Amino acid sequence: MADLKEIAEALLSTTTVSFAATGQTILYTVPTGKTCIVTKAIVVAGADAVESDITIGVTGTWDNWLGANGIGGADLALDELDAAGEYTIITPVTDTATTVGSVSVLTRYTAGEVIKVDVTVAGGGATNTIHLFGFLIDA
To answer: Running DSSP on this structure, what letter comes out for residue 107?
Structure first.
């Protein structure tokens, strides 16, 4: 039987991420022989996120899915997450710079690439959760 991640959008990973300090946390590593298409990320606050900002992606600046080089065109400010349990769903359609009829062009990730979240502005708690969703196709 085929792995659900290869025939439908599925949960790729669930990761605890600290917003208390800047830095990167690994969300998912693309398996050998596969290509990964990330479809959304759900950020669940463990406490008030205060003024924390994040990006998501691979290589160098970690922002080619969400951030300056991905959807939104800038780091995502999480200051509206004011209490434990509040969450936001990040998808390509949340790109506020995109006008009706235009398309968000995103990157497919290849085998071995490591998708990370980068906390670029710290200030929140240490027990936040990011659920990464997407699907895998043969490379």
So the answer is: P
- Angstrom distance (rounded) from CA 71 to CA 39: 11
- Report the alpha-carbon distance of residue 37 to residue 4 in Å, rounded: 14
63: tokens are 């922002």
Hey, which residues does 75 pair with through a beta bridge? Answer: none
Instruction: Report whether 33 contacts 138 (CB < 8 A).
Output: yes
- Give residue-wise pLDDT tens across range 81-102: 999 999 999 886 544 444 445 5
Q: CA dihedral in degrees (115, 120, 125, 131; nearest 10)?
A: -20
User: What's the pTM value of the predicted model, to 2 decimals?
Assistant: 0.86
**Domains of the chain as residue ranges with CATH:** 4-96+104-138 (2.60.120)
